[in-house]
Amino acid sequence: MRNPKLLYATSARLGGSGLDAVALESARVAGRAGMLGRVLAFANRQGEIPAARIGALRWHPVRLLSGLGSEFYYGAKKHALDRAAARELAGGRYGLFHGWSGESVRTLRTARQLGVPSVIEIPTWHRHKGKDKPARLTKSERERAEARGWQGVKNRLLVTRQQMLEEYDLADLILVLSEKAEETFLAAGIAREKLFRHQRGVDIARFTPAEKPPEKFVAVFVGALIKRKGVHHLLEVWRRLALKDAELVLVGTAHDEIQPDLAQFGGGNVRLPGFVGRVEDCYRAATVHILPSECEGSAKCTYEAAACGLPQITTRESGDVVQDGVNGLIIPPNDPDALAAAIERLYRDRDLGARLGAAGRQRVVENFTWEHFGERLLEAYRVVLKK
């Protein structure tokens, strides 16, 4: 069997929340299996994995570009990581590479040249989102690529659609987070055998059900307050329903695009606590979790809410944690009437909500702990090493 030492590279931080937590758990899995060679990350926030195995780009010169705006700065970070990972892999010490979409094209080229098996992780969907798009440059893409002067310099920092399509082609195995995400790759002509379903995990000791549900009907949304996640529909529907003795809690950062909707439909029984460190307390103080998103990879809030024993109203586009009628209610995205009907159903039938919530906790315990996450990741590595 070829050398299984792993090079893992991510523009996230090692340790924290969100993708930072996923990066740490992935490194832990490889370390416990004796496979971890080295991790390249943008910062190190943990002390479990020895510093000798971590290359942090915390003081990389690319930090000087942070004033360019998030789109250009994040692109620059991803390119910097990719160059560092490609150089590291070229040293010949690794038998497996695991990177992320949008930040791995140079490293995947190197892996292909060296015959090193490669895995790429997709945080959302295929770049084309299930739509039929040409591989050639569009008019706007050509204009960006041909721009001159300072704008041209900035545009070259961006991650292009063509780069991501090349990554899909170069990687030996693509990790997708849900059935819906997988469908977008199949629609783009990616072979099914090149795809591996790899859902997230959740800490079931941290995220636990409340001793008893609140007397008031409390609906909680957790995530960025943006239109892609359906917050504007949720606000409009909540105002329309005007439920008695009920409260909507929106946990997360309110982006500029949602401010008009907050101004029109907020106030009264809508509360915005902003970013919350102990988000588990918000779940435990709620009756139902709502995420009417139109596009996710596999939303971590659905794992957390299920672990806290909450029934959920969400979309198929949000991931595979919620099953319709089993541990929640699935509605189409961008359908305010369906959203309103689902909220009203759980408002009037608290027993149904309790049954769905209990089933959600059981589903997470049986399928989506970090231990299950680790088992799936090691299986993905076994699959790609056999190719």
For the biggest sheet, the summary is:
7 strands, parallel
Helicity, as a percent range: 40-55%
Distance between the termini: 11 Å
- The CATH superfamily of the largest domain turns out to be Glycogen Phosphorylase B
Q: Choose one word for the global shape.
A: globular
Number of β-strand runs: 15
Determine the structural class based on helices, strands and strand pairing.
Answer: alpha/beta
**Total number of distinct structural domains:** 2
Task: Say what the CATH topology of the largest domain is.
Answer: Rossmann fold
Mean pLDDT: 93
Low-confidence stretches: none
| CATH A-level architecture of the largest domain | 3-Layer(aba) Sandwich
Q: What's the CATH C level of the largest domain?
A: Alpha Beta
Helices and strands, in order, run as EEHEEEHEHEHHHEHEEHEHEHEHEEHHH
Keywords summarizing the entry:
41% helix, alpha/beta, single chain, Rossmann fold, 387 residues, seven-stranded parallel beta sheet, globular
